[in-house]
Amino acid sequence: MKIVVCVKQVPEVTNVQVDPKTGTLIREGVKSILNPFCEYALDHAVRIKNSVPDVSITVVTMGPPQAKDVLIRSLELGADEGILITDRKFAGADTWATSLTLAEAIRTVVPDYELVLVGKQAIDGDTAQVGPEIAEILGLPQITYGVEVALTSTRRQVRVTQEVEKGYEVIEASLPALVTCSKGEVVRRAPSFKDVINARNKRIRVVSANDLHLPEEQLGLQGSYTQVVKVFPPPAKKSNLLLQNLEAADAAKEIFGFLKEKRFVE
Amino acid sequence: MLNIDHEKCTRCKVCIRNCPFGALSLVGGSLHVNELCTLCGACVNVCRFDALSIERKKASPEELARYKGVFVWAEQDEETSPRKPRKVVLELLGKGRELADKLGEELVAVVLAGPGEVDTEVYGENGADKVIVCRHELLDTYSTDGFTNVMCAVITSKKPAVVLYGATPHGRDFAPRVAARLHLGLTADCTGLEINADGQLVQTRPAFGGNIMASIITPFNRPQTSTVRPNVFPVPGKYIGSSIVEEIFPVTLNRAAIRTRVVERRYLDKESGVSIEDARVIVAGGRGCQKAANLELLQELAQKLGGVMAGSRAIVEQGWIPHTRQVGQSGTTVGPELYIAAGISGAIQHVVGMSSSKTVIAINKDPEAAIFKTADLGVVGDAVEIIPLLAAMIEEKASS
Predict the structure, then answer these.
(1) I want to staple B97 with a disulfide (CB 3.0 to 4.6 A). Which of A232, B42, B127, B380 is the partner?
(2) Consecutive 10-residue averages of pLDDT for chain B (400 residues)
(3) What residues of chain B, 253 to 282, have a C-beta less than 8 Å from chain A?
(4) What's the CA gap between A37 and A26, in Å, rounded?
(5) CA-CA distance, A124 to A12, in Å (whole number)?
(6) CB contact, 8 Å: B341 with chain A?
(7) Structure ipTM
């Protein structure tokens, strides 16, 4: 059984700062990492692989040539092979063009897949759209916000514990299906030295625009329905009152007075 | 493709400094773009010499003009009877009214619901001209396939110019599915919407964890579709007594079309399952609360103020509170009347999730903490010491 995991290389956005003078992102020293939600998806795939026989994991990414790094990391974490979809023609792709390219690559390179796992969203774009869009293009049922992913005993269905507003729902869908993974109880694993060595013997295939059966006008910016017309820093925040060097009791009194003034306490 | 006119380029490097992706550099004295370019257009905007351009597709205005009206998916609160919309729907109607007026078109609410009673008056009272009601027993509870099929039928038949969805878990689940089926542009998690001089919807959203904002258009196909963050726009509620045109939209749907089934529901008890999205008062804790046990102090204060407790990603990762209570970019966007941030440093990912709160009080030991920039009142101190004293003062006041 083949599981496809889609992954994305992202800047570590928690460390991204805005230059107060120019209002643009300071890039120096910002690391590129495997998107954490993608890592959870991969972790679910590895758990399935470890619990039932005959499972192989293909990890797929689309990006510039250096996105290969996240494939290597994924191979270290337990994937069996990597697919790097890279071509200048893919640049500027919005979620639709990205999903179309990924879906076509999955269809072309891993035609016998049974389960597609993706992160619920990437921490740079935060759209959460690529998973459902791939599912629609491939004609698969989808389950979003998965925190536990398992196969049923017949291995014909996937059973997913889904995070919902009121708690959790357990949902089943027949394979092939697509699941987007949010966090849940999964603990991120660090690869061992042996994992790192093993990863070196695994294959990474490179897919370019010519390998896909898509007309050029459906790729990258040309194939995108949405276009970014302006990028700008977030609006400045309001000015405020900052009280320092108060004893705890005095601080509580100040806050109490403020709450009273604003009528939150009568 | 980013086109560089080397004759016009003065090598002033302004574009290099403004590229969010580090894709531009001077190579051998001339400007060079590498494979990191995502064609975001930041460089084109800042170039004063017109040396940079991006080739974009064009659409015929006649074709686009056939699509009319602003449609809002009226997500139902499945707990109510008769069914009422969630609060975000009213927020979208308020914003939708503005957009529809600018376009000179109709504002339409689209209800997908089961056979039970549905409150339709509320849509007129919040500015809609019309409500389209799609009813089927399979629409009584949400399913990706059921809702996708019916929404696609409505859009294909009615040809709206704009479709807005609340960026709720269900909205974010099926809006991309609809977009992919009908080949539509979709912009996620918008915080700003306006109509430009060309009659296009300009959608503004945060990216890079809220570090930059991007304005996005859908120039050559219709409808233009967006999911919109809850608690960003105000609830209108100013058309009380307005009448509403109700249209029943015929639905064909069979069970086989719905390919997922719920086999078990594990809902949290009411107290810990209470929604932070609609709370009037939120007391939120961060790493500065030091340990899970201290959150009881916050819970107590929240109770006394008639609110709920929430927290930052840091304490969700510690397992101190469930993810459903996380405020921020990867959690829930909240917009309460009062937000008290206790021991929260104020990373931008957190701030984007609470910056529409009306009043913010922040308590943190670090006078440099970023949260103070967002606060109406900032107090430098230990939240664990201050919060119980404050709770006691409120208690004393209430009993005197």
Answers:
(1) B127
(2) 90 84 87 82 79 74 89 94 94 96 97 95 95 96 95 93 96 96 94 94 87 88 94 83 89 90 83 72 95 93 92 91 86 89 92 86 93 91 95 83
(3) 259-268, 273, 275, 281
(4) 24
(5) 8
(6) no
(7) 0.88
